# Entry
Amino acid sequence: MRNFSYVNATSIEQVPSLLGRSWDDAVVMAGGTDLVGEMKDYAAVPKRVVNLKSIEGLDYIRQDDAGLRIGALTTLTDVLENSAVSQELPVLHQAVSVIASPQIRNMATLAGNILQRPRCWYYRSEDFPCLKKGGARCYAVGGVNTYHAIFGSGPSYIVHPSDAAPALMALGATVHVHGPRGGDEVLMDDFFTMPEMNIRRENILRPNEIVTEISIPKPEANSKGMYLKVRERESIDFALVSLAAQMTVVNGTCERASLVLGGVAPIPWRAVEAEDYLRGRRITEARAESAAEAAVEDAAPMPHNGYKVEIAKNLVKQAVRALAS
Amino acid sequence: MQQKMKKVKITIQEDGEPKEIEIEVPDTGEGGWGDLSKNTYINRPHVRVDAVDKVTGRAKYTADIKLPGLLYGRILRSAHPRARINRIDATAAMALPGVKAVVLPGDDPAVFSRECRFAGQEIAAVAATTPEVAEDALHAIDVDYEVLPFVVDEDAARDPAAAQVHGDRGNVGEPRVGEQGDIAAGFAAADVTLEASYRCQVQSHIALETHGNVCQWEGDKLTVWASTQGVFSVRGELAGHFGIPETNVRVITEFMGGGFGAKFGARKEGVICALLARKAGAPVKLMLTRKEEHLATGNRPSAVQHVKLGATSDGKLVAYERSNYGTPGVAGSANIPGAPYLYEVPNYRIEQTSVFTNAGPMAAQRAPGHPQAAFAMESMMDEMAEALGMDPIDIRQMNDPNEARRNMVAMGAEHIGWKTRRSAMPNAGTGRIKTGMGVGSCRWGGGGGRTQAECTINPDGSVQVKCGTQDIGTGTLTLVHMVAAEEFGLKIEDIDVRIGDTNYPYSGGSGGSTTAASVSPAIKGTTMLAKLELFKKIAPRFGVEPGELVASDGNVFVGSDPSKSMTWQQATAQLGDEPIFFHGQWLPGYSDSGVPGVHFVEVSVDTETGLVKVDRVVAVHNSGMILNPLTWASQVNGGVLMGIGYGMYENRIMDPATGYMVNANLEDYKVMGSTDIPEIEILRYDEPERGVIGIGEPATIPTPASIANAIYNACGARIREMPFTPDKVLSALAAVKEG
# Structure
């Protein structure tokens, strides 16, 4: 880890000026469970670390008629143990329950989870000056790409590691951002960015902006959700493939389906073709199968990760069946 | 009743030569440990004596050692899989405040080479006042490399046109051949012949405590706190390297966090630590990082085995042919056992080679070669059983020459319900999750020797036992207490035991499942003969022969007339001023070698995700006479878990394009977590008449094989490559579907 200075922020308003115009100047830290690892591995070498946990009042879960508002500094444990989340947003509750370990969930924050940097072993290792670190190539191409992307077409083949993000996206959540010009709101669907837009980052945040809140609209009546996650090592692991599914089914007919895959693309990956296919259709075994096929229609696996296509397909099938019944 | 005596032959050193002599010792019957039912400690469960110290953090491991003025060492390692160092400039590093010493290739050509043959090879080192400054100093060293062609994949390395790891010597070592009978005739006599290839990956050791040392010089005397499996091997290597007498080197290992075969000798990091300490004129602590552990401290070599097996229609094995290779990295051997594993085959031919690659060198790892051999053989036995329409157990029993193992297989099968709960048809279940059951077996040697000990009985009744052996986490310290306390009829806490120090009597390295069988007979012999010396002083008081006295329950009395008795303290008070001091050694008759083991496994396979879950393991093991059933069971549990890790998760992944290990951490190199642990049941098959036999290694061998067989039974997919991850399971399932 490179030496750095450390600043405790005391208000949201103060943060943009404490941060700089470049990611190399300063970064924010909340739970630190991702950032510290990045710094130890020299994937992040900031000159200054701005601690956000010293800001009061960013740790809350509030419920009103519109839905749920979760402060950026709310820990994953607090999200997991919240009764409104577990009762009304099972997709989020289940997603958070399979993140990392209890120890990490006690430290890590919800905003930090959706802002996680890639776990790609080329990105994380000091040995590889990869595209995402300003280098010339994505080492997953021609390398060992067992855990890499099956959707998107590069130039970087990282996968987005978050479990909370697919769930929040499936729920139609909004991210509240604060920057030098004040606050702004962005739909989760518009928050993440593909590598061709910005190779160095995975979302729209600029170096002097932070996330302050995530708000989740109240799910419509007859809407049900679930989160499925497949990991090689079940005790603690990132997803090989995960699926956040939220479906509105009335009398056996799907009115709306929101299906977001994790671990398969540089951003949480909305299975638009499957959603379109299901809308207005009566769910049958064969249609669950067809939806699953539609979800992976555009998959372009690399030499070592074709198995992810099969898993993604089966997860969509399982979720559609389960949520229709 | 007079204690029976017997003569035993022991080997002593005379003028530097081993010499066999005969001595007389008490005859304690078959197996050497007497009537176990009368014991207080031996063969009874006892919580390890340092358990509380360990869980409260009071136990000080090498990494916990703090000395005044201590510096922190770090090693600079090759940034390329194959390169030549043209120039190395540490000016900027030495200028950093807090940097106290830098050693460069020229400082010690025996440690550092300018020829880098793997990414991670040691090329220089620094010592600084904090670990952070030491790390900054590593980054400040400027190395000018001439980057050369490399090869990290064992299949690619076999190509004669591949980059050469060691000059023009060729990457493929001399074949080792083992043969018996006439394989052509054997296969001609076979009714069924099967051929298949099996692949085992490279496994890192992953000791909880990384390799490391603290070195302190005083003049030309060196004290080393080492995380080692062999304090005497560290002493010998350092004395030799620095050209000082062994008496000038003291190595201490009071507590140690695991080695699994990769911590013998000083190794490069030990020598480098001592070099830094000498150059800095201050003590240096050098603990390796997890990444360094993966890259440079050893691993279990890979194995690719092409196997051909022939059997008659009634299941008798008649011919076996195997050609296998694996990579030991830049050095060492990837050989596995050189005869058909476990089973009797009259005609066989085995040819094996080691393939050098530009990767970190192998080291012995818990049962070297055996898990690889067991995986291929036990998978093939199941494949043969199916081809012949036999039960996998029946074909094993028919061809297994080891009676104890046959009994153990029957015992485990009965316990797990092989006949009643297992479907003879693979893939019999319906639904997404399929369950199955599998079996796998092993053998291991063990045995003991090479241990001396000292015992002092003081006039106040206090007893001290010293032995240089180290407790690498297996419970050695506890068993020394138990053996001595049993012998003197005292309580465990009454014995002052000192181990883990080269200032104490010699004991060999803790490896090969030999420690218990080496240390316990030495402690038994030493304390037994020390006690006899005490009895010689007391016997006249009772008017009996020394052999008629018994020490039990804190008293010394005449065996045939317990009313003639005194307390232990009254007895030792007879010594006046002079303690009893006895230097003893390992004695034959208390230990044995050669054990079988069998694992039964139940798994669930999710046929839609390829995820395998190990639900239950029934481990049947045999250690002759078990000293401490609690620490013995811990060894079996640990072995089972390490075997599951090897079979299911662990895999050193080398990037063929760049030559780097991509998962040199504990996130992408996956070891099992606590909630992945299945139900483990341990069945004991006791043979107390054989004495003490080790358990560390056999407990890990058969796990991957039995998991593979259970997966097949569950879903009909035969996985011939480890680890059994979803990608492999799904592709095997797809192959089954396509027929």
Notes: Chain B touches chain A through 35 residues (CB under 8 Å). Residues 515-542 of chain B form the longest helix (28 residues). DSSP finds 18 helices and 30 strands in chain B.
